[in-house]
Structures are given as structure tokens and as C-alpha cells.
Amino acid sequence: MARALVLALRPKQWTKNLLVFFALFFTVGEDWKLGDLDAVVTQVSKSATAFVLFCAITGAVYLVNDLLDVERDRAHPTKRGRPIASGALPVTVAWIAAALLAAPALALSFLFEPLFGGVILGYLALMLAYSYALKNMVLLDVFSISAGFILRAVAGAAALHVPISPWLYTCTGLGALLIALGKRRSELAQAGDGAGGQRDILERYTVSLLDQLIAVVAPSTLLAYTLYTFTAPNVPEDHTMMLTIPFVVYGLFRYMYLVHNTDMGERPEEILITDVPLMVSILLWLASAATVLVVFR
Asked: Where are any strands of DSSP class E within 153-245?
């Protein structure tokens, strides 16, 4: 049962919570450059604490979502193997575990940093609204997912008490919206005629509509990031941040290739940790962006 509980918390999806480190990544460079290692260590520890607390909250959210979808998951070809749907994790235990995760994590979040706690509370409210209602509302379902990613980035900034360029929030939101649309497209393509039985909202989408929406969001994401690299106040004035654009272009193209040519789009968290070309492009982006922010700023 303990193993089933851990799996029900979906640790693979905790990679999404790495967004809380964005604030650290884009602001710690100045302290590092000045040699203020104490400040760097303090900021890193705060971001790590924020990450752990966010993982606890998201774990509770995943439990609640699976509890509400248990019957539909049992009719799904792959989701039927989830711990709650398969019966490996009893429903009562799952509800108790969700409460024991959410309540202390929320309390500790406010003790850690009140502003961070407010963001965590907002995220929890949004995700509960998604689980109970928004996931069945066309377009609002994917916008809710996108907002959840933005709140992760906001939480990271709140934990450190630092401002972040609005462009970063824009890029995060658009990128998350692209992932959500790709997920819906893959779910619809894989489910075929049985789409409605697996998820109500799929009956309100078509593959062609989702392709059109992706065709709007993908270039918007790239444009937003490109503008960020030479207009944000915290990037070098010599525009060297633009050197990171090719890695973002490749990452977007690679993700769209996987969505259209494989069945991995339904599991974006799997793409992030299993697709080597995409992982390499992300690592190269991180390395190049860190170099620019530390050396040239």
C-alpha cells in the first residue's frame, strides 16, 4: 500500500514544480557574480523549501483528482492501472492521505513566507476548481492548467521576494498552454470513438481545432521568449541572451514532433524525462542562459 500511495502522488509529474526555481535561476546570477555565497546559499535553500512544499500540495491534488475520476480511469486503457483505480490504494486511505498532505503543507507555507502561502492557497483553490468543474469546460480546462504553471513560477518569486520580468510569466503561461493543448490532442487521437467515455471534455474538441489552436500558441510562445531576450530589464544590454533562442526553437519543434508522431503527448511528464534530444536542448538552454546571466550581465 505504501508503494501504491507513492505512485498515486505521481512523483514523475513533480518535474513541473521545478518552475519554482525559475526565480532563483534568473536572479541569483548577480549574487554569484559578486561572490556573495551566503546570499546564494540562502536563496537556494528557500527555493528548495518552496519546491518541497509545492510537491506536497500537488501530490494531494493528484490524489483528489484520481479519487473523483476513479470510475472513468477504470475504463481507460492505461489509467486503469493507477493505484486508486486498480484498487491497490483504498479510497478511504487516499482521502486521508490527501488531507494529511495538504493541511500541513498549507500551514507550513504560510509560516515559511506568507506571500508564498497565499500563492499556494490560490493554486490549491484553482486545482480543486479544475478537478470538480473546470476540467469539463471547453477551453477553460487548458487555461486552468496553464494558470497552474504560472502560479508555480509566481510561487518561486514569492518565496525569494524578488520580481521577475512579466515576459517570463507570459512565456511560462504560453508554453504550458501549448503542453495542455498537445495533451488534449493526443488524448483525443488515442481515444478515438471512445473519447467521451474517458473524459467528457474530449467530446467538445476535435483534432483539427486543437491543431489550429496549437498553430496559434506555438509561434506566440516563441515570439514572447524572443521579445524577452532583448527587452527584459534583467538581461544583458548587449542582447547576448538572444543566443539562447535556437535551443527554445528546437525544444518547441521537438515537442510538436512528438505530439504529432508518437503517443507521448498524452504524458508530457514522460517526454521531459525520457526524450533525450529534448532533454539535451533543455540542458543546453539552461547552460547558455546561465552563462549569459552570470558572465555578461
From this structure: none
